[in-house]
Specification:
The chain has two domains: about 30-170, Orthogonal Bundle (Cytochrome Bc1 Complex, Chain D, domain 2), CATH 1.10.760; about 175-285, Four Helix Bundle (Hemerythrin (Met), subunit A) (Up-down Bundle), CATH 1.20.120. The protein is about 50% helix and about 5% strand. The chain has helices at about 20-25, 40-50, 60-65, 70, 130-145, 150-165, 180-200, 200-220, 225-250, 255-275, 285-290; strands spanning about 25-30, 95, 115, 175. Strands 1-4 form a two-stranded antiparallel sheet. Strands 2-3 form a two-stranded antiparallel sheet. α7 packs antiparallel against α10, α8 packs antiparallel against α9 (about 225-250) and α9 runs antiparallel to α10 (about 255-275).
Length: about 300
């Protein structure tokens, strides 16, 4: 799906037009993530968390449209504003047996269902914990026609979903989507990539780099009117592309380059933050770009 010419942010393409677009695009629900115990468990959750946020894991039309697990399950929750043509009925629903996304499970029947909150509760996912590995594997390879995921990525997704719990939900309401939050996601993904590279798991490490690059992409589109900052973002992305290539070639300096990128990303974040109020992270700027009026503002 190509991004509509009048849609400044790609995610607008799968949000209901009647939704509060500014709120939906500048805030997210809090993540209900239970702390993992032990380094192996923490790494598994971090791998899953990053994979959950990259189109690389999915395949076919979903990946081409830029969809991720997080698209339907924001912060691991649900997404009441989700509306994808040909897949949704009312907002917040999706047909998981749609032929649009799946050549395996498409049944020709239009039966969209409410998107479950993976953190649990009344609208939680009705899958037993023991059944999560085959369920998530089937979702990737059949429901979305994705490639076979690296074993560590599949295990990580299982660990991440299992770590989501209503008892871990912060009391605070929606949290702002910011440069800092997306750059933090990118650095977490790069840290996971380094840990996987250290044990020789280059395919899984490559997925983590793709996750970091996906976060940079989300920042980039919000700086479309700020060419200097956009050039810096694209230079950072190009560096990660080269690191991914170095990993595939088993280059001995790949991990050092990951560490260098992570360190340099702090300076990039600071530069972007200085101009954040002029970007589409700012609700006022986004509202003006969308032709919407924020509540409480004069027309």
């Amino acid at each position: 799906m190509a991004q509509a010419a009048d849609a400044p942010l790609r995610a607008q393409a799968w949000l209901a037009p009647q939704a509060d677009l500014v709120r939906a695009l500048t805030t997210a629900p809090p993540e209900c993530l239970s702390p993992a115990t032990g380094p192996e468990a923490r790494l598994a959750v971090e791998v899953g968390r990053a994979a959950f946020r990259t189109p690389t894991v999915l395949g076919g039309q979903a990946a081409r449209a830029g969809l991720t697990c997080e698209t339907c399950h924001r912060s691991g929750r649900d997404n009441p504003a989700f509306l994808f043509p040909g897949v949704s009925g009312p907002p917040g629903t999706a047909d998981v047996t749609s032929s649009l996304f799946s050549s395996h499970r498409g049944d020709g029947v239009d039966d969209p269902r409410p998107i479950p909150d993976l953190s649990g509760g009344p609208s939680g996912l009705k899958v037993a914990p023991a059944d999560l590995p085959p369920f998530i594997h089937g979702l990737i390879t059949q429901e979305f026609d994705g490639r076979e995921p690296p074993a560590a990525v599949l295990a990580g997704l299982v660990a991440y979903v299992r770590a989501l719990s209503p008892t871990a939900c912060p009391r605070a309401g929606a949290v702002p989507v910011t440069v800092a939050s997306l750059m933090s996601d990118a650095r977490r993904a790069i840290a996971a990539a380094d840990a996987l590279a250290a044990r020789g798991d280059r395919p899984a490490a490559g997925v983590m780099i793709a996750a970091a690059r996906a976060r940079l992409g989300l920042i980039d589109e919000r700086y479309a009117a700020l060419p200097r900052e956009r050039r810096r973002l694209r230079a950072a992305d190009a560096r990660l592309a080269k690191v991914a290539q170095a990993l595939r070639e088993d280059s001995p300096d790949a991990r050092r380059r990951l560490a260098d990128w992570s360190a340099d990303s702090v300076k990039l974040e600071a530069a972007l933050t200085r101009r954040e109020a002029r970007s589409l992270f700012d609700p006022n700027h986004l509202a003006a770009r969308l032709g919407r009026r924020l509540p409480g503002r004069a027309s």
